[in-house]
Queue: 3 jobs
Job 1
Amino acid sequence: MLSVASAQELTVKEMKATNDISASQYERKDLNGQACALVKVLLASPGALFEGNVIGDVAYKTGEYWVYLTAGTKELRIKHPQTQPLQVVFKEYGIEKVSAKVTYTLSVLLPGSENNVKQQFTIRYTPQDAIVIIDSKPYQGSQGVVTASLQTGQHDYLVTASGYEPVDGSIRLKATAPTTLRIDLEKTKDVSGSVTTQQKAAELGNEEPPKKISKLSSPANDVSDNNDKEFALRSAVETFTVKGVSFNMIRVDGGTFTMGATSEQGSDADDDEKPAHQVTLSTYYIGETEVTQALWETVMGDNPSKFKGAQRPVEMVSWEDCQKFIRKLSQLTGKNFRLPTEAEWEYAARGGNKSRGYKYSGSNNLSDITWYDGNNGIKAHVIKTKQPNELGIYDMSGNVWEWCQDYYGTYSSSAQTNPTGPYSGSNRVLRGGCWGKFAKNFRVSYRKNLSSDFRNFNLGLRLVL
């Protein structure tokens, strides 16, 4: 089970849209000239930093921060010197995404200020003789129901019974409403059984599905949240077509993995890959391949690549060029494409929750998966000419370097959820290695960084949705 959250955590009390006209009266526009949303973060302590689709400087105005966000933004990361970082997913507070010229308030409590805020947590379970443990403390249930009054914030739970597969997970209690889980354990099959055991969760009123935490021996732990529920209803592969050019996006189911210098990287691991640390990600989609020259030219009207070929990856593009491409692609499709975070890139490269622990993406043998200096690596090659990784994703090791969204920075040993990298920096991260490079550069944990305006004939990109 996950450990109980540290006391040094920020807590969200509530988030809501208001009739405040500040967003219109003090309008700010994004890079596309579109009006922003304004989130007033009610936090009576200076020094907080904000990450996400933040536009311009954040102003602190006596107990509240004015944070302008691109319309359509769905989450915000808050960092404070006294606490752990907090990822606020707006959907958890009834707001799918923020809208242009609308002012929102986001009430955030510092550690200690929420000590007297308690909320009711109920678990309904079968069989009725199951044992329920919350934060390492057993609770006495009655007729398949346990109710506990707990401080707001994160709590761990376990439901177990003899002859049944146990279910464990974690839940974050909000001050705005009580939380109820429904957990139906399933009988454990013997080793000859053909049906695997799985957790069932049913929503009742305001109930939430429990977050699944797989056994520690698994390569990645499944997690479930509102975003994952939405993605679960969609196919494993989604195809998009823009003016006759099609591309596939592969679903990467959320999970927990160890990022950085893991054991299979051995002595090849560089200092900036350390310390290895635990990262939990929500479900997302990532490009089956690197962005092709055909797609880039369709969207942008030109092809900057040195090694021309419609089905070769686009190259000679900077991080800033990628942002322009993504904005236009998003307008054409009505979807919010972006570059992957560094963590999303590495998790997908490792094979997500299907990872087999390879040193490179999809194999320990480079020639199986990519073009490099040892097998005619003198140019970018046509996509999908080598075998994919465990998730069916091609060329995550090799072909061209792939820009990530994050600023480059050092790693922390702390566990993180949906990290987005440093708040600021001078260079952006690239991953994956490229044609003509040595084997070390193709490792799933290898990191490179360059200025956001730098272009070269070995720099490309991969999309995330």
Job 2
Amino acid sequence: MKPSIDQTSFGSITIEGTIFEHDVIIRLNGLVEKRKKKLSKAVYGTSHIVSLAEAKHVYEKGTERLIIGAGQYGNVTLSDEAADYFKRKHCQVDLLPTPMAIRTWMIIGAGVIGSSIAYHLARQGRQVLVVERSEIAASPAASWASAGGVRRQGRHPAEAMLAIEAIERWRTLEQELEADLHYRQGGNLLLAESEGEADQLSEFVHRQHELGFIDVRLVDGKEARALVPGLNNQIVAGSFSPSDGQADPVATTHAFASAAQRYGATYRIGTAALGLLSHRERIVGARIEHGEVEAKHVVLAAGTWSDELAASVGLQLPIRTRALQMILSTPAQRNELQLVISAVRRVLSLKQLVNGAFLLGGGWLGDPTPDRRSYTMRPSSIQGNWATASELLPAVGEQRIARSWCGLEALSIDDIPLVGVIPGLDGLTLAVGFSGHGFALAPAVGRSVADQIDGRPTPELDGLCPNRVINFQLSESAQGDSTH
């Protein structure tokens, strides 16, 4: 009969850069001796296989029974040679289950959505590991390239509850995250340049009220020009949402990540996830560049690259990659545009930064490179975006283009995100396909995903459930076992 063992007394990890140590426990003549043994080839987060040389080293200590504790984010197993060696020596070996991996919540992707989820999960007291193949909010990721609009009006009904919550959170988010997000609640103004478009806006405002955006109101041309001095003379009406605004997407992403780490989350930057691990219709972790990571639950929030990871377990996500363009002007002397503006007949989002520069977006396209690691600009898109902004607000045309870039966005099949669990595949939550308008929702998405994982009711996610648009058919790899 095997003696009982307090598993909490061993299997611990000490992180030392990319090398970890774990405790090798030797039971010799009924006495427990703990030896700390550096595994020189074991990289943080990987599965370590005990070699024949290590087996001989341990056995030479005079052991009768060996108990090996697993790593914090991986497994420790015996190589065939080591197992045969111990068998020949009549040495009993017990491998303990990984003590921490079964309590680890793993997030793939450190963008604004992934980092908000990490923050909210860590704030619940969970052990959170975030894996990011590049840097936080780095080119060409969407969180790096975002226009930074904090918009409520114009939302799809399925996003309405999240949008209402998010707008309220943004008011105090800087204090909550202890960071300057460059947030400004100047409002959002959607403009009409004809009587027909004004009629459309009247119906539009009515729909906003039905969604609960009760402060959105219709303004005439005179009030629109008072809100935004210098608008062209064709403006006849506008839909004004005073609670909307703007913020810095890079600063916000870093703020969520820093706050998550203050609550104990671990970030592995520059570490690519290569695929998901499944066992008996459950996601149990992920393969990363240096090995495997086990987890109680995995959140896939890797933006446009999420489809590659989902495909590793047979999930075909209905998302496509688009390179969405942004343009920054030289700074204007006067800073009069406090709102974010757009127009019914224009592909445009226009705002002015604190330094006077205009920031133009709206959905003009560049081209992703074939490997989806970069993009190329389209001169026609740059010219078209600049021209339509200058027509709406002539002050833009008085400046020059200082810089232009694209961010790679994941657009879903119906242009609203896929957020939630996968029917028939436990242990996985999707937070993908935000289609160019996820930044403003990030505070509410992070909270709601964390609550859903915690088992709380989340009716605000019902309309975004992934099974609304796809019948997930799991391949044999997901139905069977993709672990190694």
Job 3
Amino acid sequence: MPKLKNKSSAKKRFKITGKGKVRFYSAYLRHNTSARPMQMKRQNRGGQIMADGDARLVKRNFLRA
């Protein structure tokens, strides 16, 4: 049976915290930020913790240990 590999794209987008939660960074901050509202840019700074239902799917399907 072949080795089950992690999804390389998911490894770059998500990190598992010490407590097992999934951390991610918001989109829409790479370029063309002059057209975006300042409130949106402020709120998207830093990482966020993913909701439990989505985190379960990400861990099960993309981040196999």
